[in-house]
Amino acid sequence: MAYAPSHRAHGIRGFTLIEALLCVGSALVLIGLLLPVLSGSRESARRAVCARQIASHMQVVGAYAIDYQGYFPYYFSESRRIPPMPPGGRPPAGEGLSWWYGAAGALWHLPVLDAYNGDPFHESLICPSDRFTLVERDEHAARLGVDPRSLKGTLLYVMSMAMYLDPKALSPDHPSWDPAYFVPQRQGDVVFPSQKAALYEAIPFHDPAYTGGGSVPTPHSTNVAGADGAVSYRNSTTIHPGVPLRAGTTLPGAPEPGLDAALREAAKLRFTANGVRGRDW
Q1: Which whole-number Å values give the CA distances from 278 to 74, 148, 188, 192, 235, in the listed order?
Q2: Taking the CA of residue 225 as centre, how many other CA atoms within 13 Å lie in the half-sphere pointing to its CB?
Q3: Residue 280's beta-bridge partner residues?
Q4: CB of 101 within 8 A of CB of 253?
Q5: Would you call 56 helix, strand, or coil by DSSP?
Q6: What is the spatial distance between Cα 232 and Cα 280, in angstroms, rounded to a whole number?
Q7: Which end of the chain is more exposed for a tag (fewer CB within 10 A), N or C?
């Protein structure tokens, strides 16, 4: 009588349920071990893209300086065909002085929009690791007449205040605020171009300690372009402290005594001592 040969007759047997579960469990463990590695590799790639973007922006800044007597791009310069400085050295009605600092630093690219196809939210102006919706982005979009919902990220490549503040305003001995100090600086006036920050990421998206939501870890690492155009991934512990402002100073948005360490750390590249005449590292 014919019969179907069994696996056992040929020395072959199927997996038991326990063996199958062990195989699946082992595969899941391996996947769990590999995911952080793959995630880290992707983030490293994004960091490299971000560095290339900042380097390209510095080339645009350099081309602008050639056309405009060596000056860095400046949002409020009437002489260079961009929005004029507010009358009387004050920001628009209803805005605080801190807006003026933020606008000049974050909107440095408006004078050079032709390099970005006229798009104030060009893809290269957004960090590839930025997946957050921040209030600052929405505010800038509203001022530019752009629908914030159409944006993929935030504009957080910021120009250091050293590039548009007279060095007197950033003197470590006598830091002060006066509208007369709020003037663009020339590229050729930077004393230590390889040690002076020009453009940088305002939020360290690539730092492993960054957890999102805009909170900056202390210390942290971020992409920074020097005034010479070279980009480095720099830890904040290697950056000189910013202007040590004292209580009662009138520089808005500055790290005064009493503010937490994270704000002080984040401001190292913002209020840099001695402006274009100083060193940041």
Answers
A1: 20, 37, 13, 7, 19
A2: 26
A3: none
A4: yes
A5: helix
A6: 13
A7: N
Query: Which tokens go with 168?
Result: 């007197």
| Measured CA distances, 276 to 39, 70, 82 (Å) | 38, 13, 23
**Amino acid 95: pLDDT:** 57
How much of the chain is helix, strand and coil, in % rounded to 5? 45, 10, 50
Least reliable range by pLDDT among 110-114, 240-244, 254-258, 272-276 = 254-258
How many angstroms separate the CA atoms of 98 and 214, rounded?
Answer: 18
* CA-to-CA separations, 140 to 26, 122, 134, in angstroms, rounded: 50, 14, 10
Name the pairing type of β-strands 197-201 and 231-235: unpaired
Distinct helix (H) and strand (E) counts, the chain: 4, 4
Mean per-residue pLDDT, 254-263: 57
| Predicted TM-score of the model (pTM) | 0.75
- Gap between the Cα atoms of 214 and 223, Å rounded: 16
Contact 105, 160 (CB under 8 A): yes
Higher-pLDDT residue of 135 and 87 is: 135
| Structure tokens belonging to residue 198 | 């020009």
Cβ atoms within 10 Å of 164's Cβ, excluding its own: 25
Q: Does 277 score more than 50 pLDDT?
A: yes
Per-residue pLDDT averaged across 204-226, rounded?
Answer: 85
| Burial letters 11-47, b for 16+ CB under 10 A, else e | eeeeeeeeeeeeeeeeeeeeeeeeeeeeeeeebeebb
For 72-111, the pLDDT digits (tens) are: 998 776 555 444 454 445 555 555 555 666 677 888 888 8
